[in-house]
Amino acid sequence: DTGVSQDPRHKITKRGQNVTFRCDPISEHNRLYWYRQTLGQGPEFLTYFQNEAQLEKSRLLSDRFSAERPKGSFSTLEIQRTEQGDSAMYLCASSLSGDSYNEQFFGPGTRLTVL
Amino acid sequence: AQSVTQPDIHITVSEGASLELRCNYSYGATPYLFWYVQSPGQGLQLLLKYFSGDTLVQGIKGFEAEFKRSQSSFNLRKPSVHWSDAAEYFCAVHMNRDDKIIFGKGTRLHILP
Question: How many Å apart are CA A86 and CA A61, to the nearest integer?
Fold first, then answer.
């Protein structure tokens, strides 16, 4: 296993279109996180899963955003009716929840450009 | 609410010079503290972390950071920078071990030859 992978790496879309991103975590990791990073900012938390359950959603995650992790492995993040303000890097991270601290490992991100 | 402040948006140093990147956090208790590095087109890489104990922590690539409780600071240092250190550096806090990470806005490091 080479780490967290994300697909696609880049996505250009027109305003109003729907887009879906995929994240494959490190195989034994039960926690999966989504963050968004806009230009000149640090990553901001969007949501996270423990196994299949979505445990927390940020207020940044508007109704147009939906995330799933149906089998507790890979996750998808869908944005409906994209807006120019959605242009950002979407980062996925995974970790193994346990008794001790477990590092969140980040994927390379999906860069979304909304025209 | 907890927050992380990195007061320097850009820093430029000459290759071989020493480096210090500043970070202050706001939180009632001592959170877990981190420094990440992000190179263009790359994901975030953890440089070092502080949980408790010795306030001077060593990381990868020759970086170290010092936790100062009285100043709520966690500054990153390197005695001699290399051109390959040019990247964006993020200070971050983590309230609970499984919770979300809160990042600062980042400091972009430029290296002069």
Answer: 11
Q: For A96-115, what is each residue's pLDDT tens digit? A: 887 677 788 999 999 999 99
- Which has the minimum average pLDDT: A19-23, A28-32, B27-31, B68-72? B27-31
Q: Give the count of Cβ contacts less than 8 A between chain A and B.
A: 52
How many whole angstroms separate alpha carbon B68 and alpha carbon B51? 13
- Interchain pair B32, A107: CB under 8 A: no
- A2 and chain B in contact, CB less than 8 A: no
Positive or negative torsion for Cα A75, A39, B49, B69: negative
Contact B100 A45 (CB under 8 A): yes
Q: How many Å apart are CA B23 and CA B47, to the nearest integer?
A: 14
Q: Which residue of chain B comes nearest to A55, CA vs CA? A: B99
Q: Which of B74, B65, B42 is nearest to A89 (CA)?
A: B42
Letter for the amino acid at A37? Q
